[in-house]
């Protein structure tokens, strides 16, 4: 992208946590490769937000909570839910940010997925599509202009966060080199199609 980062642009760094990195409970291939890129991006933005997947033990998104196998789907009261291995359990090492992530660069950390019965891929609105995290209000209060999104995983939490940033009225830019995907049954193609339809701009790097 040719134009410069502007004085009110925000960067949202999604879920750069141990469980989404190699060796973690829900490892994204090459997930830790985003860490140096994110570390270089953060100091360039006046507004920096981290999201942190933050589930209680026995969370409704965990296959183990339903006696099912990971990556099966189930219908919960708010809709279809992919069942995941137990991951990002509150207070666990897996839920911590990657140790090399310079988390001190962020002014705000948004935890999500903390309601036992509701998942939240998005940093803005939970999977019931009603319960807000407060992030839209935070960004508005800070006077945010554009919202740049990066992190893990492109096709789940990054995409849902980007889509909800659009829905909240922000221009959104996905920074592709600072993302990695899970890619489950075509989820990455679908995520790119959904983001394109919603007007999310995609740039290889900034
Ligand atoms: C995520 C699945 C479950 C993500 C979080 O960060 O993309 N994916 N929880
Ligand atoms: Zn999760």
From TrEMBL:
One of its GO terms (biological process) is pyridine nucleotide biosynthetic process. The keyword Membrane does not apply. It comes from the Bacteria. Residues 10-200 form the Isochorismatase-like domain. It is an enzyme of class 3 (hydrolase). Keywords: Hydrolase, Metal-binding, Pyridine nucleotide biosynthesis. Coiled coil: none annotated. This is Nicotinamidase. It comes from Plantimonas leprariae. The lineage of its organism: Bacteria, Pseudomonadati, Pseudomonadota, Alphaproteobacteria, Hyphomicrobiales.
